[in-house]
Amino acid sequence: MRPIPERYRVPAVVLHWTMALLLTGLVVFGLYMTSLPFSPQRLKLYNWHKWAGITALALASVRLAWRLAHPAPPLPASVEAAMRGWQRRAHGTVHAALYGLFFLIPLLGWSYSSATGIPVVVFGVLPLPDLVPIDKALAGSLKQAHHLAAYALVALSALHGGAALKHHFIDHDGLLGRMWFASR
Questions:
Q1: 171-181 confidence digits (pLDDT tens)
Q2: Are 180 and 10 in contact (CB under 8 A)?
Q3: pTM (2 decimals)?
Q4: Which CATH architecture best describes the domain 10-179?
Q5: Structural domain boundaries of the chain?
Q6: d(CA 5, CA 110)
Q7: Burial of 63 (0-12, 13-18, 19+ CB in 10 A)
């Protein structure tokens, strides 16, 4: 029987799963709202999407601050030794890319909104400053970048989740349990 690896602290676990749920919802919601015809309902959904995106940006900031103050527990020596060099590099690269996308995607969406001339007003009461000037060509580029970055997040999240499931079901090394709530 292998020893239980050192766990993440509760705030890190809560932030991880809250972000996972919020970002999954944002992607699904984003795909749904963009498929709707132009209508007041679609405009309302775009506003909700913006609010959730700004919330995700704020949570990403909290998560990054927590992570900087509380580094991730080290991988168990047995897991580290079993990983090939490319797997260790992929582990670090995917985590860094996910954190980058947590910030990039909402900032691209906010910039896209600014470039279209439609302000972001969080919860209908807190107007945010425009990040870029109104520019139709720039808006088109930012919209495409926002979509591509969201698809990159989906792909990296699938890779991240697949690796966690591999560790749990194939390697049986307890890594998945490190990012879950203690059962004791």
A1: 988 888 899 98
A2: no
A3: 0.92
A4: Up-down Bundle (1.20)
A5: 10-179
A6: 39
A7: buried
The closest of 162, 178, 158 to 75, measured between CA atoms, is 178
Q: Is 118 exposed, middle or buried (0-12, 13-18, 19+ CB in 10 A)?
A: middle
- Other beta carbons less than 10 A from residue 23's beta carbon: 24
Q: In angstroms, rounded to a whole number, what is the distance separating the alpha carbons of residues 115 and 135?
A: 5
Q: Give the C-alpha separation, 36 to 62, whole Å.
A: 33
Query: Above 60 in pLDDT, residue 5?
Result: no
Separation of alpha carbons 8 and 120, rounded Å: 35
Structure tokens at 9: 């602290």
As a whole number of angstroms, the distance between CA 184 and CA 182 comes to 6
